[in-house]
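Notes to self after the call with IL:
- keep both proteins in one doc
- input above output, always
- annotate only the second one for now

Protein 1:
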Amino acid sequence: MEVLHTYKPFEIQELELTSWEQRPVKNNFFELVLIKEGEGTQCINYNEYPFKSGSIFLLPPLKCHSYTLIKPTKFVFLKFTDAFFKTTNRFAIDRNAWFKEAAYILSNYNQLPGDIIKHETDRQYLNSLIDMILMETRNYGEESMSLITSFLTSIMEILIRNIKKSAFSNVSNNHQDERISAMLRYINEHLDTPERLKVDHLADVFLMSPTYVSEFFKKQVNMPLREYIIKAKLKLVEIRLLNSDFTLTEIADDLGFTDVSHLSKTFKRYVGMSMKAFKSKGEYILLKRPA
C-alpha cells in the first residue's frame, strides 16, 4: 500500500514492506518516520537502533539510512519540504516563525540518535496528528491545507519539546553536569540574539563568574564557547542557504554577523568553501553527524 501526497508544505507517504528498498529521496529538510506496525532495526550513518510499533525517528539530511525488517512493517514518512519556505503568502501563517522552528529541529536532532520521542503522551499525540493528516489528505486534498498546516505546527512543537528535554550528545563528560545541558539549550535557542550569547550574560543566567563560564564550557563540551556558537550559527546558515530564499544580508543580520563580508569569510573558514560553492554542491557540511 502506498499513499503519496505532495501538497505543500509537506509530503506524506505510507508504505507497507516485507523487505527494505532504498527510496530515491533526498532529504532537503527533515523527515519524520512513524512505525505503525512491525519490528526491526534502523541504520543511520552506520549506527543501528531497534524499532517496534510506535517508534518515531527523524531522518538526518544524509543518504545513508536503511531498515532491517524482522517483521512486515508499515511506515509513514512525513516530510517537511523546503519548497514551503521559498513560497510566501500562499498560506496564512508566519513563514519566518515556521522556518525558525523547523531550522531549530533540523540543527539539533542530529545530536539525538534513536527514537526521538521521550514521553509516551507525546507519542500518542503524534500518532493522532499523523492519522488526521492522512485522513484529511485522502478525503479533502488541498481543500484542507489550512487545517493540515495547524497539525504540522503542532507536530513541530512536540518535536521541539522533546529535543529540549533530551541530553546533547556532544557533551564529553560521562557524568554530565545538568548546567551544560541547560546552557547548550539556551545557546541554541538564542542564536539570533547575540547579546544573550555574551559571556557576561551567560554568567548571569547560569550563576557563574564570567571567568569561569568559558572554562566550564570547554571542559564539558571539549570545544571553546566561541567556536561552538560560531558553528551552531553556521549550521543555521547552511539550512537557510539550501532551504529558503532569505538573502545573504537577511541571514547575516538575523544571526548577528557584522555584514555579508564577515559572514562569507567566517563561512569559508569553517565550512571550507564559499557560500556560492556550497549552494552549488547542495549538501550539508557542518550539519552532518559524523559516523
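Protein 2 (the one to annotate):
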Amino acid sequence: MAGYLVPVFYVSIAYGLVWIFGLGGMGDLETLAEWRIELGLTEASAWVVIALMIVLMAVVQFVKSLGSIAGEEIGWRGFLVWELRKLMSFEATCLVSGLIWAVWHYPVIIAYGGSNTAFQLACFTVMIVSMSVIMTYYTFRARSVWPAVMFHAAHNIHIQRIFTPLTLETAQTEFWIDEYGLMVPLVVTVLALIYWRRSRAAGL
C-alpha cells in the first residue's frame, strides 16, 4: 500500500505548493472540457468531473499500466539493485541505480523535452535518484519488486494524467511542474532523506 500512497503524497504536496504560491493555477479549462466529453457529462460541475476522472485514473488507468511498468521494474528493482547491493552499500546502490535509470531516459528528454534541456535533465535526475532511494528501500524491506511497480505506476499516473493536465500554466509554470520542473524533485528529495535515515535504522 505504501508503494502506491507515497507518490500520491509527494505529488499532491508538490502541486499543492505550486497552486498555493501562484506558480500555476488549479483547474485548466481545456482539460476540464476534454474530461467532460470523455465522461459524457458535458453539463456536470467541475468538481464532479475532477472527482470522477481522478478515481478512474487512480484505479482503472493505474491497473492498466501495471503490465508495462512491471516489465521495466523487473529490470531496475527486480534485478539491478540486488546485483549492485552485492558490491556496494545501500546508499551507493540507490545512487548508482538511480543515475543509470535517469540516464536511460535522457534520449527521450533531449529529443522531446523542449528548449531548456539542461534544466530539465537536472530536475529529472534529482527526482529519479530521490525516487530510487524510496523504491529501493521498499524493495529490500518487502523482498519484492511489487512495491516499486506500484510506486512507479502511481507516480506516472498522478503526475502525467492528473495533476499536470489540471494545472493552468502561467509564464513560469513550466519551471515548477511535471517531472522536468523544480517542485516535485524538491519535495521528493526531502522525503528521500527521511528514507535514507530509515534505511540505516533498518540495517539495509
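Annotation: The helical segments are 2-20, 29-39, 46-85, 90-112, 117-142, 146-166, 183-202. The chain has seven helices and two strands.
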